[in-house]
């Protein structure tokens, strides 16, 4: 059965996870082209003084992105979150995703993100306020709880369902676990059994085999991939094939990958402007290089030090040969 979020029928069961500093418009478009059914924006703060910030505007730019366009918001104040949701719908978001998964101690000066999971009443107030504020579907991204002894993902999932949240992403780690340790997919399957809204499994999925395994263990409706897609936007095609029961397909030929890398770097220069684009492109080039057998490490080091956008592009062309 196809997965739906509100009025949107998703094409496929793989999604790109929101990653601050990574899932900007150029990278989201690339992952969508390779089959990600949805790609959530970087988180943006609900703080009123940041809503009109130029960087916030860039993070929520969805120009040319196919539906459904999802913007993630972060905050701990129900009224501010409601206002941020409304504003982002006005700016083109077709889905509002709420971040209750970020492990940072203080995100934007408030105990937001996964810190909220300890305060179930506040979770309910935030979800109620955001759902009431907008006509578009609201989704929620959580961890399994605050710490291994305090896993309340199932309770939060029920709160979310009764608040009218239309899909739930669960990163299978507690806040205390950061990004280390194994992901506990069993909690995700507990969540899946507890609610009737779509549940999306997240955490450490980086291959067709792990995608299939996580779908099987959790019974989730879809999977969300973050770090596995860095330097490999074509992974989504491979995951989709695997989830549809086809044999594992190879990644695209080197010529295609190279063309995509150069296009990505160029797009970053245009999207951010040459100075900032050059800096953002560095990490993507390094991730692409990680997956490029036999890449020249001195060549990579030279690119990462370059201060001119055209030269960065030229050296990238030479590196991926
Ligand atoms: C660099 C980076 C930035 C992230 N930024 C966000 C974010 O803005 N919002 C969010 O909900 N999660 C964020 N996450 C968490 C990811 O969405 C995801 O839940 C986590 O990385 C686990 O999935 P993975 O193992 O597939 O990477 C971030 C993760 C990374 C590595």
What string gives the helices and strands in order?
A: EEEHEHEHEHEHEHEHEHHHHH
Briefly note the structural class of the backbone.
alpha/beta
**For the terminal residues, how far apart are their CA atoms?**
42 Å
Strand order of the largest sheet: 3-4-5-6-7-8-9-10
Q: What percent strand?
A: 15-25%
What value does the Rg take, in angstroms? 19 Å
Structure, explained:
The chain is an alpha/beta fold. The protein has 12 helices and 10 strands. The strands form 2 sheets. The protein has an 8-stranded parallel β-barrel, surrounded by 7 helices. Strands 1-2 form a two-stranded antiparallel ribbon. The protein is globular. The relative contact order is 0.11. The mean pLDDT is about 95. Flavin mononucleotide binds near residues 42 and 102.
In short:
The chain is an alpha/beta fold and 321 residues long.
Topology:
Elements: E1 4-5, E2 8-9, E3 14-16, H1 25-33, E4 38-45, H2 54-59, E5 70-74, H3 78-90, E6 95-100, H4 120-133, E7 138-145, H5 153-163, E8 167-174, H6 185-194, E9 199-202, H7 208-218, E10 222-225, H8 235-243, H9 254-272, H10 274-290, H11 297-305, H12 309-319
Parallel strand pairs: 3-4, 3-10, 4-5, 5-6, 6-7, 7-8, 8-9, 9-10
Antiparallel strand pairs: 1-2
Helix pairs in contact: 1-9, 3-4, 4-5, 5-6, 7-8, 9-10, 9-12, 11-12
The protein binds flavin mononucleotide.
């Amino acid at each position: 059965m196809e997965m739906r979020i509100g009025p949107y029928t998703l094409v496929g069961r793989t999604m790109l996870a929101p990653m601050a500093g990574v899932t900007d418009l150029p990278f989201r478009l690339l992952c969508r082209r390779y089959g990600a059914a949805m790609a959530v924006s970087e988180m943006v703060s609900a703080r009123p003084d940041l809503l009109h910030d130029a960087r916030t505007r860039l993070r929520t730019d969805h120009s040319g992105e196919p539906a459904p366009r999802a913007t993630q918001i972060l905050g701990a104040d129900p009224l501010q979150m409601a206002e941020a949701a409304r504003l982002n719908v006005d700016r083109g978001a077709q889905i509002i995703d709420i971040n209750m998964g970020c492990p940072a101690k203080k995100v934007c000066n408030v105990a937001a993100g996964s810190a909220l999971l300890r305060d179930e009443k506040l979770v309910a107030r935030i979800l109620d306020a955001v759902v009431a504020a907008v006509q578009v579907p609201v989704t929620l991204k959580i961890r399994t709880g605050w710490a291994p002894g305090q896993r309340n993902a199932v309770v939060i999932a029920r709160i979310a369902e009764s608040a009218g949240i239309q899909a739930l992403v669960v990163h299978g780690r507690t806040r205390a676990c950061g990004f280390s340790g194994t992901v506990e997919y069993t909690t995700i399957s507990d969540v899946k059994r507890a609610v009737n809204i779509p549940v999306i499994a997240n955490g450490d999925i980086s291959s067709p085999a792990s995608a299939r395994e996580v779908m099987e263990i959790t019974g989730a409706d879809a999977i969300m991939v973050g770090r596995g897609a860095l330097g490999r936007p074509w992974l989504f095609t491979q995951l989709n094939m695997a989830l549809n029961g086809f044999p594992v397909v190879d990644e695209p030929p080197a010529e295609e990958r190279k063309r995509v890398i150069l296009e990505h770097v160029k797009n970053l220069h245009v999207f951010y402007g040459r100075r900032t684009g050059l800096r953002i492109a560095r990490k993507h080039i390094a991730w692409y290089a990680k997956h490029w057998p036999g890449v020249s490490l001195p060549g990579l080091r030279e690119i990462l030090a370059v201060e001119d956008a055209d030269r960065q592009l030229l050296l990238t062309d030479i590196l991926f040969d």
